[in-house]
Q: What sequence folds into this?
């Protein structure tokens, strides 16, 4: 298994309020643009609910590409959340981190990629396995290099 995530600490020592379109951004028909935005949003406060147990991870590899998670994307990972069936999780398996959907079938745990080029991973008693954290947000660059 290849390393497919780089883990980084969260730094909440600064605040950077950014203008916020509080009336929403339409994905359908355009609406008149707001002349100015009075609201501000701090992404640290919006995305980080449990600072002491939250980390960032940068995706390496393409095993989750069909889910829209691509190399270079940043994951917000919360270690304080309990796993729920179908969660996107960062798992520690036999000494390496991986990000996968977790499927539980009876007593069997499967780590499910979102790319048909990769097999599902069956977790057995022989594996050194831990659900390290639950992915709560994916931050991605929408303008890719050409």
A:
């Amino acid at each position: 298994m290849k390393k497919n995530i780089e883990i980084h600490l969260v730094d909440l020592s600064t605040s950077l309020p950014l203008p916020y379109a509080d009336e929403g951004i339409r994905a359908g028909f355009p609406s008149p643009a707001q002349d100015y935005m009075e609201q501000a949003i701090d992404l640290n406060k919006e995305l980080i609910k449990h600072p002491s147990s939250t980390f960032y991870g940068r995706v390496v590899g393409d095993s989750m590409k069909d889910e829209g998670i691509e190399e270079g994307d940043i994951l917000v990972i919360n270690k304080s959340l309990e796993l729920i069936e179908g969660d996107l999780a960062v798992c520690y398996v036999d000494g390496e981190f991986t990000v996968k959907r977790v499927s539980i079938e009876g007593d069997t745990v499967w780590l499910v990629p979102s790319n048909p080029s990769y097999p599902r991973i069956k977790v057995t008693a022989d594996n050194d396995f831990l659900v390290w954290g639950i992915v709560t947000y994916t931050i991605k660059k929408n303008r890719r290099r050409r």
About this structure: The two ends are 29 Å apart (CA to CA). The longest helix spans residues 43-47. The mean pLDDT is 83. The first strand starts at residue 5 and ends at 9.
